[in-house]
Amino acid sequence: MYFASSEVGFGKDVLEYLTDKTSIAEIHSALLLGIKDYFAKMGFTKAIIGSSGGIDSAVTIALAVEALGKENVRAVLMPSQYSTSHSVSDAEQLSKNLENPYNIIAIKNIYDAFLTELSPLFKDLPFSVAEENIQSRSRGNLLMAIANKFGYILLNTSNKSELATGYGTLYGDMAGGLGVLGDVYKTQVYALARYINREKEIIPEHILTKAPSAELRPDQKDSDSLPEYDELDTILFKYIEERQGPKELVAQGFDEKLVARILRMVNLNEYKRNQFCPIIRVSYKAFGVGRRIPIVAKYLS
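Request: output the structure for the sequence above.
Response:
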């Protein structure tokens, strides 16, 4: 199993370490074991996953199919008016490649119904994170309804980079019974996808090459809210795994404002991680089991 070591190095060395082919193969095996073990010991047999056409859900679905069998993994595509056509087609192609069952449930009518009922309170206030989160929570409700009706366990697709920075919606895309990628950085998720595709294309190539997006508003990209993942994951690793503080990071040449921004996101979002589902641990600093800090703590620069 993969466990991060100390004093990895600086800059690109961290990314090279995180995406090392041997480590990725070990993480792949560890995640499969974690899924199998969780389901076998808890007496579960079937999983359900929200399939967005993005890299995180694609890797989670592929891992679940390998661990549980294609007939035991149901993907649910839940496009909104902000979803791109390729998100639906990419998600469909993934399930066709894996031969697992899938359904498409558009959420526009559900979303519009929420806005209609909230209009007396929201009035003419501009579009904000509130409307974005309604979409995410509508999807979470649909997934949990199907899970309850048919006895599925919802597998969560949030990665470690998102959990670290709070880039997720409580009771929405953070819902689930087990976090498959919660201890896997975004750069590692891409490396896992390439590993899964090592013999043939399982995850459609377009999923690996398109810009990541939550698609909760027009033309949204992850980079609108987060630094580029190579830089983000390098600083996160040094802060979380290596326990390096802001002064140490700035001394290594990282931009002071960027460091302060990232560390502030990590520290302010412990309350979200505290409410997250169990995570399959593949490092010694997994949130919840390897890294415990107070929910409310003074941020020190």
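The chain is about 50% helix and 5% strand.
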